[in-house]
Amino acid sequence: MIGRRWLGYVAIAIGFAILCAFFGLWQWDRRNEAVRENDQIAANYDHSPVPLDTALPGPRSFDASQTWLRVTMTGHYDVDDQLLVRNRVHNGQPGFEVLTPLVTSSGRAFVVDRGWVPTGNAQDYPDHVPAPPKGQVTVIVRLQGDEPHIPGRSDPEHTDEIQSVTLSDVAGKVDTPIWSGAYGQLASESPAPTEAAPLGWDRPSADTGLHLSYFIQWFMFAAGGFGFLAYLMVQEYRNLNQDDPEERERALERQRRRDARPKTDADIEDELLERR
Fold first, then answer.
1. Where are the domains of the chain?
2. Structure confidence by residue, pLDDT tens digits, 70-118
3. Which of 59, 189, 201, 269 is 20 to 30 A off residue 98, Cα-Cα?
4. Which helix (H) or strand (E) holds 230?
């Protein structure tokens, strides 16, 4: 019975199981990443605000573990160097995020993402960008890492629009030196603006449930592959030994057990169709 054909089937089942295990472990890694992200959000999102110079002692300072950490600083907004980040979607609606440098007493500016504004009704540009508070303002932001440059895309020339929050590109568009390791999503500002501010962000949360479900499913698929192989082997054995008296007796016993089971609606329907 164990010939080349069956060795091939076994090899296919093993290969299928390895493939399923690969995807299952990949989903497990994704789940662990989501768990770590949620732990980081829980640790940093509501953390007491840390002074900017303490959190980022150098202009290029930033560690990924600081993502979502609340940081406070005081300065004045430089509206003349304000930039708009294109292709930002909120609830399915296209729009822009508003980046406004906050110039601190050191003379260096920190890039503040003040929130989201929708694309205009008649043009690919906001109808209105709310102004930030004038004069000295104290802000609290949540740190975000520098975004990578989008391959194949360039910023529109002679405009205040950019494709991503790539701080090296932002630095070339503003007159004041900036912190280039991180920027911040606005959490609060004092004094408050005189008009409605751009739309802020909901508290983030990484979903772990689907990854765990997919992890289990992939290993069930792997087990199912071996189960199907075992089924084929049993059927092959029965076909090859159908003339054996012991196998015939076992086949009759299986048939008696099937006949003794209560008939389902599908069984009754099949019998009616056979009588026609």
1. 1-45+204-229, 49-190, 241-276
2. 999 999 999 999 999 998 999 889 999 999 999 999 999 999 999 999 9
3. 59
4. helix 209-240
